[in-house]
Amino acid sequence: AQKVTQAQTEISVVEKEDVTLDCVYETRDTTYYLFWYKQPPSGELVFLIRRNSFDEQNEISGRYSWNFQKSTSSFNFTITASQVVDSAVYFCALSEYYGGSQGNLIFGKGTKLSVKP
Amino acid sequence: DADVTQTPRNRITKTGKRIMLECSQTKGHDRMYWYRQDPGLGLRLIYYSFDVKDINKGEISDGYSVSRQAQAKFSLSLESAIPNQTALYFCATSDPKLAGGEETQYFGPGTRLLVL
After folding, report:
1. Per-residue buried b or exposed e for B48-73, using 16+ beta carbons within 10 Å of the residue's own CB
2. What does the pLDDT look like over B8-67, one tens digit per residue?
């Protein structure tokens, strides 16, 4: 069965610190997709990144970076030089691929990040 | 204008009342989804629809029903609301025809529902 675990329920850092949000997944499929979403205090869900299981290259987008390691079934998210605007709940999600189509998203329970000034 | 809209954004209702949450999208996506979010539980799938004639139950469909009136509209109904249906409800859309078959779900702003 597929599962996503975000073991860190809440993290608090001071502005300009680097912070890593952990995501560990379980799947029996060889083809799957991993996602990160951000939910700021205003409540909407913002798509951040999608990664397929065949692409293990790390990705960097500004202060955000993602480390995908199939060997440890992890897809961790790092924010460098955190800012107050990064305060949000971050969700990791998994989607398997079968029957020629992507399956539904399975979400982790989220990590609440608080960045203090 | 937002690509995925939800109405109402906030709703308070009483136990036993029927309530409908509506979702509209201008993205032209075929697939639409309804999720609920409860504190500490992440998002859980209620129903999903791959096209107007294809509706499927998700993980937690009991107590809910849906209607796909058109490609752009997907409504969620609570036939007889109960307090444990108090939650934040999200609609999402996706389309496998885009991005080489790799789908991304895009979410509406959410509807906060309180059942007294």
Report:
1. bbbeeeebeebeeeeebebebeebbe
2. 999 999 999 999 999 999 989 999 999 999 988 889 999 999 989 999 999 899 999 999
Check if the beta carbon of residue B107 is closer than 8 Å to that of residue A44: yes
Q: Does residue A25 belong to the interface with chain B, where contact is any CB pair within 8 Å?
A: no
- Asked if A91 has any chain B CB less than 8 Å from its own CB, the reply is yes
Of B42, B90, B92, the CB nearest to A109: B42
Strands B10-13 and B111-115: parallel
What does the block give as tokens for B67?
């209607």
CB of B40 within 8 Å of any CB in chain A?
Answer: yes
- Residues of A numbered 45-74 whose beta carbons fall under 8 angstroms of chain B's beta carbons: which are they? 45, 47, 50, 52
Q: Which of residues 54-83 of B touch A (CB under 8 A)?
A: 58
Q: Is the C-alpha dihedral spanning B25, B28, A99, A38 positive or negative?
A: negative
Give dist(CA A103, CA B45) in Å, integer: 12
A49 within 8 A of A35, measured Cβ to Cβ: yes
Summarised one tens digit per residue, pLDDT across range B26-42 is 989 999 999 999 988 88
Number of neighbours of residue B75 by Cβ within 10 angstroms:
18
Q: Is B40 left (phi over 0), alpha (psi -120 to 50) or beta?
A: left
* Interface size between A and B, measured as CB pairs under 8 A: 49
Q: Note the residue count of chain B.
A: 116
